[in-house]
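> example.struct
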């Protein structure tokens, strides 16, 4: 397990308004990146509207996007799009190229070990791996230039291009017409989150669910935060032309919707018996890894290796559901959707409590919590944020009502990523200067150091460090 020491050390490039990350911090981010909508009924996790329209469309492959007059230039200087998107996607040493490297890692030592342990054969041809380490394309929908070895290509995110490739650059084309022809509307936070979560949490599609067995065999723990990962994978400029066609990114809204959709996806998957159970045992993927994976000693005096969580009313000794997104969504709901915050918090408590009452009760509670998360996702997607909102959300994450919930590693990682990505949003909005943000970096890095590795994690130390970082940001309000 690689921790998140120095996960982000970022500053803003004022000219482009995008995040830049130093090479020393990309190793930890890369581990997260390479490892990898929702219908209300349990019948299936449905695709977004755009992908629903594109069902049956062909996947034409990365090569079809790489022409020198389109997206294949070595440097970006296009009037409408940068035109160096393929080069950015292929970047061999930065997080922006992680998707293109996703297939190649299957042939590495780790990929071979995992596949051998699980009896999958070659990882490079195993359906259990290719669902996320390559573009998920049914055999009968692959065009002549489609190659699995491309890894996670353009169409993994933008949708199969057979319906819109030849039309999207023509003079009469608009963004709306491209979407009508099957392009995925990634500018919409919910659509983007659902695409990303297919691999960065899991789905019912073949090869898009990382089981506890896979992690036991060596697969990294899945972790995801929509705004941060979007920044790492941004291959475009949000310039005047972009604004003419699409709304500019609202980082707070993107982050908040990502948290809501994360809860929605987790509870949806957990409510499905064929995913939540592994024979006699539950599927431990859904639970907080480090609530069980702690040092164990045997001695005459008890030494607790965990801290009770006030919002997890579960029987003593039970492993808790991984509630990292639930914690974050509870915090942001209090600020941006207060009318729904209480109901969501009650549903989350009921969900944890139901874990002690058996499978049927926990499934029913999961569906109820999913409904609350869906409602919050819709509300947050419709609400534009302000700089004051951002300051308040940061303060709420580190405030008394939330920080007592940081008793485990996964939730604490989400919290420090959130504070960092929201600080960057304040810089982009001009509410905090680049110089002031750099001055806060010491406090942010102290919080990252507190979650550097799972084995060294201390809840008290983390809460103190997070409070200092949030306090330093709040002082700039």
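> example.seq
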């Amino acid at each position: 397990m690689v921790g998140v020491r120095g996960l982000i050390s970022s500053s803003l490039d004022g000219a482009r308004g995008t995040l830049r990350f130093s090479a020393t911090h990309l190793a930890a981010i890369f581990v997260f990146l390479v490892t990898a909508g929702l219908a209300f009924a349990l019948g299936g996790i449905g695709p977004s509207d755009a992908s629903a329209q594109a069902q049956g469309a062909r996947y034409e492959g990365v090569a079809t996007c790489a022409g020198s007059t389109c997206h294949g230039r070595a440097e970006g200087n296009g009037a409408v799009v940068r035109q160096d998107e393929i080069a950015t996607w292929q970047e061999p040493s930065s997080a922006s190229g992680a998707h293109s490297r996703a297939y190649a890692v299957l042939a590495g030592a780790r990929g071979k070990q995992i596949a051998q342990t699980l009896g999958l054969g070659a990882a490079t041809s195993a359906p259990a791996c290719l669902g996320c380490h390559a573009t998920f394309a049914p055999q009968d929908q692959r065009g002549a230039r489609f190659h699995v070895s491309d890894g996670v290509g353009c169409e993994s995110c933008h949708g199969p291009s057979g319906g819109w490739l030849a039309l999207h650059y023509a003079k009469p084309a608009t963004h709306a017409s491209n979407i009508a022809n099957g392009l995925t509307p990634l500018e919409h936070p919910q659509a983007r989150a659902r695409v990303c979560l297919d691999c960065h949490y899991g789905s019912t599609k073949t090869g898009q669910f990382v089981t506890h067995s896979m992690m036991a065999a060596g697969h990294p723990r899945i972790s995801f935060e929509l705004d941060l990962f979007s920044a790492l994978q941004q291959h475009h400029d949000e310039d005047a032309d972009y604004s003419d066609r699409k709304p500019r990114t609202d980082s707070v809204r993107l982050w908040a919707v990502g948290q809501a959709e994360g809860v929605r996806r987790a509870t949806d998957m957990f409510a499905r018996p064929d995913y939540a159970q592994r024979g006699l045992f539950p599927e431990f993927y859904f639970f907080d890894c480090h609530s069980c994976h702690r040092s164990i000693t045997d001695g005459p005096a008890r030494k607790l290796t965990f801290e009770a969580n006030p919002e997890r009313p579960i029987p003593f000794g039970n492993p808790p559901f991984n509630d990292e997104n639930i914690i974050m969504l509870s915090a942001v709901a209090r600020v941006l959707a207060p009318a729904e915050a209480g109901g969501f918090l009650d549903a989350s408590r009921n969900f944890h409590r139901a874990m002690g009452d058996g499978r049927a009760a926990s499934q029913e509670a999961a569906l109820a919590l999913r409904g609350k998360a869906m409602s919050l996702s819709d509300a947050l997607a419709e609400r534009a944020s302000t700089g004051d909102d951002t300051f308040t959300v940061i303060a709420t994450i580190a405030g008394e009502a939330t920080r007592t919930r940081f008793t485990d590693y996964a939730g604490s990682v989400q919290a420090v990523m959130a504070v960092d990505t929201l600080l960057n949003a304040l810089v982009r909005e001009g509410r905090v200067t680049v110089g002031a943000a750099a001055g806060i970096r010491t406090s942010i890095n102290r919080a990252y150091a507190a979650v550097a590795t799972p084995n060294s994690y201390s809840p008290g130390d983390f809460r103190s460090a997070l409070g200092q970082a949030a306090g330093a940001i709040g002082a700039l309000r």
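> remarks
Residues 1-53 have pLDDT under 50 and may be disordered.
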